[in-house]
Amino acid sequence: MKFKYGKYVPSLADEVDMEELVSALSDLLLSSGFQSPYGDGSVDGDRTMQALHDAILDALLNGGLLPDDVLEQLFDEQAATAKQQLDELVQQIMERMQEAGYITPSPELDAERERRAKADGGGGDGEPGQAKFEVTDKALDFLGYRALRDLLGSIGHASAGRHDTRDMATGVDASGAPKPYEFGDTLNLDASATVLNAVTRAHRSGTAGPKVEIGYEDLMVAQGEYQSSCATVIMLDCSHSMILYGEDRFTPAKQVAMALSQLIRTQYPGDTLHVVLFHDSAEEIPLRELGRVRVGPYYTNTREGLKLARRILERQRKDMRQIIMITDGKPSAITQPDGRVYKNAFGLDPIVIRETFSEVSACAKAGILINTFMLARDYDLVAFVRRVASMCRGKAYFTTPQSLGQYVLMDYLDKKTRTIH
Question: Looking at the structure, do residues 381 and 399 belong to the same domain, yes or no?
Answer without folding.
Answer: yes
